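Notes from hallway chat w/ T.B., transcribed later so I don't forget. T.B. wanted the structure written out for a chain they're using in a teaching module, and asked if we could keep both sequence and structure tokens in one place. Agreed to drop them here.
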Amino acid sequence: MKNVILFLALISFLFGQAQVLEPVKWETSVEKLSDTEYQLISKATIDGGWHLYSQTVPQDGPIPTTFTYDDSEGQFKIIGNTFEEEGHTIDDPVFQMEIKFFEKTAKFKQKVKVTEGISTINAFVEFMVCDDSRCLPPTEVDLNFIISENAAAKTAESVQDNAIKSTESSSKQGLWTIFILGFGAGFIALFTPCVFPLIPMTVSFFTKQSKTKSAGIKNALFYGISIIVIYVLLGTAVVGVFGASAINEFSTGVAFNLIFFVIIIIFAVSFLGAFEIMLPNSWANKVDSQADRGGFIGIFFMALALAIVSFSCTGPFVGNIIVLSASKGGLAPVIGMFGFSLAIALPFALFAAFPGWLNSLPKSGGWLNTVKVVLGFLELALAFKFLSQADLVMQGHLLEREVFIAIWIAIFGTLALYLFGKIQLPHDSPLPHISVGRLSLGLVVLTFTIYMIPGLWGAPLNLISAFPPPQDYSESPYGVGYTRLGTGSSALNDHGDLPEGAHLLAPHDILAFNDYDTGLAYAKKVGKPVMIDFTGWACVNCRKMEQNVWPKPEILNILKNDVVLISLYVDDKRPLEAGDVVDSKLKPGKKLKYIGQKWSELQTIKYKANTQPFYVLMDHNEDNLLDPVSYTPNVEDYHNWLKTGISKFKK
């Protein structure tokens, strides 16, 4: 899966045997700040070549480092967020995104306020580490902080300095990206019916207030700054109330994605003309009355009136910017809002300062509503991305690839008909003819719609690969029509009806099980050896093996006919059935809560390995037929490994 990437895969062998890798060691210390306040310090020592990821990473990126402090007894209170060192930010070639990470060492600090009598604070850290070719599954390590009177004292001022430095260490490159996205969104928002017509009104207001040209420029400059301050304060308020790390956690959660799906649907329907979303009229009336006061106070309230009156059009943009920037954390929401407000403030301030330029603007008219409707269709398409993310995380299979693509085909196909004038919506003006610009945009949308149609039959659709679910998250290997047409599947022909607990692994029709015991029982029944595939939903090297090695005729023939494949996903976040929840053997005192934890622990304990892909050939007594292998891109080597194991099974 692409929305919750848990790890990459490449097993490491030393002297011919797999090893359990532990590239990160943790140690803790405590600094006393005052009689009741302490600084909890977690230091990670990282082996050479490995990367430990930041607490804030982009959505669809690696698992962030997360600290959980056990305050169940109410003996201490967490103050603020856990601060981290500057680290490094690069364009990661494997995850194909900009990610912040640490190498060699990393230090994290958390300020707490304690009560009398407490001697120890317990916590645990969940983290993920990668090198240039492999990643380990998410790991949890217990941390213990000893609260001692002898803890080294440190002034609160220096702690605050460290906090500020940590906050300012966000990637400049990432912040520039957020700024540009925000600026672009603000520029688009200008051409909506709620914003564009306000420009002449603004010019009229300043023309009456400014007695000289210099006064007009000064007032216009203050007006533009006021717009920026209002929107930036909104971004600051969101970060202050929820915290950047909390927003980031929300953005990857099922509940958040479902809620945001509903919100965007509401805005989209509003853009299409079903109703208007407006803040209370009383707010606008009160602000307007203040704007009449004149002077800088009146100008500020004029800017506030603009923000309130235009909310029905700017609201969706503001919400999207905050959500997108949340994955960056830190100042990103504020920077995003600054870019958005700057794009809106510049033309208002310039036209207010130089009212003669107003004559160069196109006249308001039906084209503004067309812009709003087009944005409504785009919002509608975007909404289903959030619904898809929630479905992927829960593995609900309610919005699989074919359904998602079909929805997008319907949305963009309808948009094309609208642009060609075949459909009219409530607030549209009469359309006696289609302009060249509208016709051109309609052709682009129609071309895009036609491009998506083959995706229903399994086409990869590389242009939009980041939006629909992965190809294997689909109803059938070949898309819509597969079952109805009855196109050949050797797996179906060989096995007839699928055995209980089995499925056809897309897109090669390999019969596979996702449960160890069920797959082993079937292997005994049909008299074939077992091939265990320790894999992950977002394991890049696993997908490379499945897409580049497994389809080769000599390999595919073996996987379909000579072995029973059991694919165990170590990052499966679905909860275990109540009867399957057991104590962890690796972490005494903790329970295995998720399906993936069960398979990850099996791999670690039995095979002394914890990276994926990891392939095991075993007999019915669960003994290895030969040494397991990991990522093996060489088809000949992988084929020889399979043949050797199968020949040993037949002896």
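Follow-up for T.B.: The chain has a mean pLDDT of 74. Might be a good example for the class.
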